[in-house]
Amino acid sequence: MAPAPVFTGVQPHIDATPGAVDTRVARRRAARSSRQASSTPKIKRPPNSFICFRAAKTHELPNVPAKEISRIASVLWKCVSPEEKAYYKGVAD
């Protein structure tokens, strides 16, 4: 009896020969490199009110992992009064 195939979660490309794979990877790397070397720097998006609120919670919870802070902040944000949300909107603007 043959062993069951291992599913990696990735569908193989029809042309999965080593040369074809290397070419696709090289093209992807070249495209990424040209985007990174763009003459105009990418403008960072300004933080919204929730991000400012989450940053405040980060300072209050110094030894908590970022994933847990995000979870806690999202629960708290849903319970925050409109006045406090307005404060963080002002901080964000």
Automatic annotation (TrEMBL):
InterPro entries listed in its UniProt record: HMG_box_dom (IPR009071), HMG_box_dom_sf (IPR036910), SOX/SOX-like_TF (IPR051356)
UniProt keyword annotations, A-Z: DNA-binding, Nucleus
Residue ranges the UniProt entry marks as DNA-binding: 43-93
Cross-referenced Pfam families: HMG_box (PF00505)
Every HMG box domain range: 43-93
Any Gene Ontology CC annotation: nucleus
Coiled-coil positions: none
Disordered, as annotated region: 1-47
GO molecular-function term, one example from the UniProt record: RNA polymerase II cis-regulatory region sequence-specific DNA binding
Name assigned to this protein: HMG box domain-containing protein
